[in-house]
Specification:
The protein has 386 residues and is of the alpha+beta class. It is 26% helix and 28% strand.
Length: 386
């Protein structure tokens, strides 16, 4: 039987983003190969071929590349040097190793934005042991955002400290190595714009979403689309996001996270070169999900339309503080009884406090009603001991 899609896609990482990427292409019968440390991972059972190994293992990544036509990744913490080598040998990597090498280091990201005149908050880059000597007068207010340049993920690697704590040499005890100190944007509105770009220079963005963070673990609690900010600010966010991806000459899917400050300026916070938590709602709420869009890029297809079909709220389901290990999910009957509610469970073997276990999306013709439904379900859906 002749298949319409000959491309074999290799994913470095076997988490929930890979799972949803494969799910989006299942109607097309595309072959996916996975590299992950354990087959007991969200996307393991969906893979055509599964390779067990570290995401930093040069030999394992090359083994994945040997059975794949295109390589992508669903987490930034992978061996970028191997990806550079594969590209030199003619292998297609989406997004490119060049982009990933910048994104992997939060300090280099900030320097890239400054070099390309892309609006971002004020920052200082230095070894953590020298933070106490920093000229903090360039930052307004009494707080400073401190980020580890490498290794941070899902709220980890970020701390908000007082200037007194920075000057008192508290930074080295929190993060070793190089750090970036950033302006703390008081009362910021946090937006995300998903941008897709293919090898033919076709580029499309999704409507901006507004994110609400859990203040304790610095992780997205829920997001809603469309954003409530003024349409002029949404246009500015979209334009800034597109200019950033064009500056990278990026091919792939990118989540551009932005702050809106109290002067209504849009400032780039960070960019993720992959499908992102802030685009989960697109599975049900947009013509083309972020996952189908990335598949289109890797299969050399035209980009799909990105319009929002209906207002939507996406809420993360995090592991409960009192559950570690085996678990079950409470509240399923409530979600099943809610019109317009959709559950995505990530197939994780164990629950951990604050771990992303799944998400749910609520659609409604009225955004406020969708938010109310989501809030009611958020209080009921939780992992509990079996």
């Amino acid at each position: 039987m002749t298949q319409p899609f000959k491309t074999r896609i290799g994913i470095i990482g076997g988490g929930q983003l890979g799972k949803m990427l494969i799910e989006a292409a299942q109607p097309w019968n595309v072959e996916f190969n996975i590299l992950e440390a354990s087959s007991d991972c969200p996307s393991g059972k969906y893979a055509t071929n599964f390779i067990e190994g570290s995401l930093m293992d040069d030999a394992k990544i090359k083994e994945l590349a040997a059975i794949s036509d295109v390589i992508t990744y669903e987490i930034e913490h992978v061996n970028v040097n191997t990806l550079f080598e594969l590209e030199e040998q003619g292998k297609t990597v989406i997004p490119s190793a060049r982009i990933l090498s910048v994104i992997q280091n939060k300090g280099r990201q900030k320097e890239f934005y400054a070099e390309h005149a892309l609006a971002t908050s004020s920052f200082l880059l230095m070894p953590s042991t020298e933070a106490k000597t920093a000229n903090l007068s360039i930052f307004s207010g009494e707080k400073v955002v401190v980020k580890s340049c490498t290794g941070g993920y899902d709220g980890k690697g970020v701390a908000i400290l007082s200037k007194e704590d920075v000057l008192a040499d508290k930074v080295p005890s929190i993060f070793p190595g190089e750090v970036v100190l950033e302006e703390f944007i008081q009362d910021a509105i946090e937006l995300s714009v998903i941008v897709a770009r293919n090898a033919a220079d076709e580029i499309k963005s999704y409507p901006a979403v507004e994110m609400v963070f859990d203040p304790k673990i610095n992780l997205v609690d829920y997001l809603f689309a469309p954003s409530k900010v003024d349409t002029a600010i949404q246009r500015e966010a979209k334009d800034l996001a597109i200019r950033a991806i064009e500056a990278f000459d990026g091919v792939g899917i990118f989540a551009v996270e932005l702050f809106v400050d109290n002067r209504n300026r849009c400032l780039i916070n960070e960019i993720a070169p992959r499908p992102h938590n802030s685009g989960h709602h697109t599975i049900e709420a947009n013509y083309t999900s972020q996952y189908e869009q990335l598949n289109r890029v890797m299969l050399d297809l035209p980009l799909g339309e990105t319009d929002l079909l209906t207002p939507a709220v996406m809420t993360n389901i995090l592991g409960s503080d009192d559950v570690t290990g085996d678990y079950r999910l409470d509240g399923l009957s409530d979600l099943a009884a809610t019109q317009g509610a959709f559950l995505h469970w990530y197939n994780k073997a164990a629950s951990k406090p604050g771990r992303k276990m799944g998400h749910f999306t609520v659609l409604d013709t009225n955004l406020e009603d969708a938010i109310a439904k989501s809030n009611a379900l958020r209080d009921k859906l939780r992992t509990v001991k079996p």
